[in-house]
Amino acid sequence: MLCHLFFRPLLTQLLAATERRDWQDHNLRGQAYEAVNMLIQNHARDMRPVVLEVMQVVLQRLHSTFSTVVVSQDDKEERYQLQSLLCSVMQVITRAVDKDIEPFCDHIVALLLQVLNNEHAIASEEAFMALGAIASTVEQAFDKYMGDFFPFLIKGLRNYADWQVCSASVGTAGDVCRALESRILPYCDEIVRCLLEDLQNPTLNRQVKPAVLSCFGDIALAVSGNFVKYLPSTLQMLEQAAAMKISPDDEDLVEYITVLREGILEAYIGVVQGLHDGGGSPFIKPHLGNIFQFLEVVVNENGDDPSLIKNSVGLIGDLATLLVQHAEEVSVYFRQNFVVEVIQEALRQDSLRDIALWTQTKRDTLLS
To answer: Widest CA span of the chain, in angstroms?
Structure first.
């Protein structure tokens, strides 16, 4: 941790640097705010009051941007860039101070919604991420903001032209689902509709789509058995995404498919765990062939990726847990050689041993 003697003076000087006359030179303003973020991320607990003081400065500066006189397009861009930087600092502060942010949330959310209302891509992207941080921190208390926030979320999910905004809104949708849990239900139909449209839209940058798939898992975990109504369309999209093949000659495609498979696995894990909580095992059985076929491809082609292997092993355990009452019908899937081999390989790796032991136990129970 930074020496306490220097923490406040450093932050004071950095904040002053962002308002120097030469702030445009060498990206001084952006670099100074980035340094502020780093200090706040690593602050000692007894420096929390100082961080909250900085938060008040940031909120005041963000508030003042809405009354700045704008004459030219350059003025407008300058304002949006500043809003983007201030929203970024608010996200960092929110995650750093955790529950201490709660008394200030009404003010923060109101300002962030004003930023979204301007519909500027860079500022909106940062505002969405800051709102996601708020939701993750206050959890179900975020429900009070959904009436005002939801229209902006839907607009963001449908922003195909500014794909970074769309991507940020997808991430925030996942944050909100995890925060609200079953309270997200009134908003689910529209969110799921938007996510399906994102996957089907050929003009949307493909980099957004892995996060979209993962978001289905967040929704399923949040609403449990209520996710059954979305299951046919969700599984269809997952199976279509899983069918993409790696072309060894295209490095960008190889990297993209690796990230895509991560999103598919996260979606399957969320769906299976959500169905388990809601008693939905009959709905997943017809799709086991496709799921295990996908798992085998991942194990064979991405066996050196610890994250993919961890999620693959975890999904096998989740499926065994969900389907233990249907052992006779499904045991053939769990007896496949690649299932045994990937669990054994995971057991040999320290970072994967715990999940592998759990999965091995669940598989043994199903096959016993």
So the answer is: 75
**Separation of alpha carbons 320 and 327, rounded Å:** 9
- The burial class, CB within 10 Å (0-12 / 13-18 / 19+), for 71 is exposed
- C-beta contacts of 285-291 below 8 A and 24+ residues apart: 285/323, 285/326, 285/329, 285/330, 287/235, 287/239, 288/319, 288/323, 288/330, 288/333, 289/333, 290/235, 290/239, 290/242, 291/315, 291/319
What is the distance between the terminal CA atoms of the chain, rounded to a whole angstrom? Answer: 52
Q: Which two tokens stand for residue 287?
A: 């799709």
Among the listed residues 115, 124, 113, 202, the one whose alpha carbon sits nearest the alpha carbon of residue 164:
124
Would you tell me how many other CB atoms lie within 10 Å of the CB of residue 116? 23
What is the percentage of the chain residues whose pLDDT exceeds 70? 96
Residues 178-206: tens digit of each pLDDT: 999 999 999 999 999 999 999 999 999 99
CB 235 within 8 A of CB 285: no
Per-residue pLDDT of 191-247, as tens digits, reads 999 999 999 999 999 999 999 999 999 999 999 989 999 999 999 999 999 998 877
